[in-house]
């Protein structure tokens, strides 16, 4: 059974992440809660860079719920065809814009149940909107956060719900606003899925990943193999 990380270790981890990046923010390009919501809906199985490329034209044509609701699914689709699942996403974006107009005066509701009632919006998307647009201490567990929480031992769990609950239970209150971004960015750029960059990791001291020693030296070879792997390479 996993032994819970001690509060001072959790504190040290978030203190180090906060020190390295004092003002973390989403990499999605948005200007208000509506464009944030649409961007997050479009981001399923797509990169933030890809979403930003697609939304540049889309938001120029339809910057708010009223103009988006007036577009056809085909029109929305013409802007987002580079994204996976674009047909379904276009359908959801038009439908959620209509609901925002009908039920919420065209505004994005600051309410989890109302957000999750929108087409294409699940718990993860609602968590991102509540955190980024409304400053709530929610954590949207994506693939990066799931990996970091499990590798480090911060909040081990086999499901995203378990990891989310675990993180909410251990992350100190004052770090809850930034925890979502710190963990995502750490997973995206340092604690990478295939080859974690433990050699430059700000939280390596407290991390419980059993293989971290394998990645503790800066890569030297052209293939990115760490100097720690040299013995394996020449074997
Ligand atoms: S030490 Fe390595 S495995 Fe642990 S959090 Fe840092 S990059 Fe990830």
Write out the CATH superfamily name of the domain at 33-132: Hypothetical protein, domain 2
Can you list the ligands bound to this structure? iron/sulfur cluster
Using DSSP, what is the number of strands? 0
Number of helices: 12
Write up this protein.
The chain has helices at residues 7-20, 33-42, 48-61, 65-69, 73-80, 86-104, 112-116, 123-132, 143-152, 160-170, 176-189, 230-234. With 235 residues, it is mainly alpha-helical. It starts with 6 loop residues before the first helix and ends with a helix. The chain is elongated. The protein has twelve helices and no strands. The protein has a domain at 33-132: Endonuclease III, domain 1 (Orthogonal Bundle), CATH 1.10.340. Iron/sulfur cluster (SF4) binds at residues 151-152, 190-191, 196-198, 201, 203-204, 207, 209, 212, 215.
Keywords:
235 residues; mainly alpha; Endonuclease III, domain 1; 12 helices; 53% helix; elongated; binds iron/sulfur cluster
Could you give the topology of this structure?
Blueprint: H1 7-20, H2 33-42, H3 48-61, H4 65-69, H5 73-80, H6 86-104, H7 112-116, H8 123-132, H9 143-152, H10 160-170, H11 176-189, H12 230-234
Helix pairs in contact: 2-8, 5-6, 9-11
At a glance:
53% of the residues lie in helices and 0% in strands. It has 235 residues and is mostly helical. It has a domain at 33-132: Hypothetical protein, domain 2 (Endonuclease III, domain 1, Orthogonal Bundle).
